[in-house]
Amino acid sequence: MMQKLPPLDYPYNALEPYIDAQTMEIHHAKHHQTYIDKLNDALENHPNLKEMPLEEMLKNLEEVPEDIRTSVRNNGGGHFSHSLFWEIMAPNAKSVSGKLKEDIEKKWGTVEKFKEEFTEAAVSRFASGWAWLSIDKSGELQISSTPNHDTPLMEEMIPIMVIDVWEHAYYLKYQNRRPEFIKNWLDNVACGDKIGEIYLSKINT
Ligand code: MN3
Q1: How many angstroms does the Cα of residue 160 sit away from the middle of ligand 1?
Q2: Full-prediction pTM beyond 0.85?
Q3: 84-135 confidence digits (pLDDT tens)
Q4: What separation in Å is there between the alpha carbon of 109 and the centre of ligand 1?
Q5: Cβ neighbours for 17, distance < 8 A, ≥ 6 positions apart
Q6: Ligand 1: distance of its center to the CA of 55 in Å?
Q7: 187-198: pLDDT as tens digits
Q8: With the C-alpha atoms ordered 51, 54, 60, 64, is the resulting torsion angle positive or negative?
Q9: What DSSP element (H or E) covers 133?
Q10: CA of 169 to the centre of ligand 1 (A)
């Protein structure tokens, strides 16, 4: 099965003014597409792996042949992470509600406190990487950050929310102001309804 670029369910300019259309287009059509092309190249001569779902590969990297393991980790990780990133964004995004809000409040007290800790993880990730909200093995919500294209799947966690803090995600509009990008993203672009839906689907399986 060849991996394919997932279409966005909103146009490239839909997240203006928080993420500009040019950044969205380059990020989706160029960066993400390149990771997919390189992943498909790596899997080309491994027909048995091609049938394995991407998440399974990333959870079990030690089962991926050594000659393509780094490529799968980086390009497969990039494909997985970007796909989730596009999925959980929306114009006019509302804050979290329902079961996810309840569980965030159980863990962090308030949604504001959760956002502070998530922001800290995203701001302090050195160089290129991601900040995540995931469900850990015991079913608890966890904030974490990863370098490069590593994912919480490698730590046996199930990611439900992610922000890309590679410079290509924000540099055209925000230059070095990563904290401003993260604040705008959390307050206006990260879609509580979509993240909540993913959360419910993951805890009910
Ligand atoms: Mn990116």
Answers
A1: 17
A2: yes
A3: 999 999 998 999 999 999 999 999 999 999 999 999 999 999 999 999 999 9
A4: 31
A5: none
A6: 18
A7: 999 999 999 999
A8: positive
A9: strand 129-135
A10: 6
Task: From residue 61, give the alpha-carbon distance in Å to each of 10, 24, 83, 105, 150.
Answer: 33, 30, 19, 34, 11
For residues 165 and 184, what is the distance between their CA atoms, to the nearest angstrom? Answer: 13
- For residue 6, give the nearest of 85, 100, 91 by alpha carbon: 85
- The rounded distance, in Å, linking the Cα atoms of 161 and 132 is 6
Paired strand residues for 41: none
For the chain, domains (ranges, CATH) are 21-87 (1.10.287.990), 98-203 (3.55.40.20)
pLDDT, tens digit (0-9, with 9 covering 90-100), for 121-174: 999 999 999 999 999 999 999 999 999 999 999 999 999 999 999 999 999 999
* CA angle, residues 45, 71, 33, in degrees to nearest 5: 90
Q: What is the Å distance from ligand 1's center to 47 Cα?
A: 27
What is the distance in A from the centroid of ligand 1 to the CA of 67? 24
